Amino acid sequence: MEKLNSIKVREKLRDKGLTMFTPTDFRRLFNVSGYSVKNYLNRHLKSGLLIKLKNGLYALREDIPPQYAIANRLYMPSYISFETALAYYHIIPETVYTVFSATPKASREFETADTDYVYHRLKRRLFFGYTMTEIRGIKVQMAEPAKAVADYLYFVALKKKILNDRMDLRGVKRGELSNIVRAFRIIAMNGLMESIYVK
Questions:
Q1: What is the arrangement of strands in the sheet containing 108-112, beginning at the earlier edge strand?
Q2: CA dihedral 68, 69, 75, 77 (to 10 degrees)
Q3: Measuring CA to CA, which residue among 95, 102, 140, 99 is closest to residue 116?
Q4: Co-location of 33 and 80 in the same domain
Q5: Measured distance CA(84)–CA(141) in Å, rounded
Q6: Tens digit of pLDDT for each residue in 5-50?
Q7: 87 with 41, same domain?
């Protein structure tokens, strides 16, 4: 059983690439009891060494992972999409401070590490069109450009979002977007797609 020295804990977590970890991860990594893990986590949340991202998920305060990586891990399965992905791909010009993701589970919202994370539910058959993207050396699940647009238009069609009239679709192939839109089976999305390409 290892003694939980904070310097060694920090070094070992970094060495193993554990930017986020659960109590179970911690217990296995350091071969300590659940009781020891609970005490250590509680003590170092207070000391400021650690930050709680949500119940059962922690990170080193000085090594907080990128927001997109946190988003993927806070609520699984999920991928970055909607306005967040549109801003990432420069399809919309605005800076988006909330991190929006798609999930086949119930819609949820979290606030952690001074950021709001919003998860919009898509039917499981629509949970596709994302890829692994590397950000600050960490791979995250991110909607491909056309899928991010389609996800967004879907919620506009449902009147849950307002259409951004400053979208730049030069990097989105019309045929690819059209194929994805067809999978949603929402007639109103076709009109929305036409309107943003006509601009």
A1: 108-112, 115-121, 99-103, 79-80, 138-143, 130-135
A2: 100
A3: 99
A4: no
A5: 12
A6: 888 889 999 899 888 999 999 999 999 899 999 999 999 999 999 9
A7: no
Q: Percentage of the chain surpassing pLDDT 90?
A: 80
- Domain residues for the domain of 152 are 67-198
Out of 27, 47, 63, a domain closes at: 63
Q: How far apart are CA 122 and CA 103, in angstroms?
A: 6
Total number of domains in the chain: 2
Is residue 190 within 8 Å of 161, Cβ to Cβ?
A: no
Burial of 185 (0-12, 13-18, 19+ CB in 10 A): exposed
Note whether 112 and 177 are same-domain residues.
yes
| Cα 162 to Cα 165: distance, rounded to the nearest angstrom | 9
CATH number at residue 46: 1.10.10.10
pLDDT tens digits for 51-72?
999 999 999 998 899 999 999 9
Cβ–Cβ under 8 Å, residues 53 and 113: yes
